[in-house]
Amino acid sequence: MIDLSTGENVKTLYKFVEIKSGKRIEKFKTFDIKRALRFHKWYVARYKQGLLMEILPEKKNYDWKEKKVNYLFEE
What we know:
Layout: E1 12-20, E2 23-30, H1 33-47, E3 52-63, E4 68-73
Antiparallel strand pairs: 1-2, 1-3, 3-4
């Protein structure tokens, strides 16, 4: 995925979540969009219900105490 503000490529995590009885159940996660869509197509064909897809971009977080860059997926 390309970040529009900086123009650089950002790694993206695709997650499929089922919400049942107010609880979030994580079913699948991947970095590849084609694999995620293929999984969703298979899941819908098998179980006759859809899942919630979350797209989480990777964010740089600089820790000034340790002088280290951490990469996190924001939620």
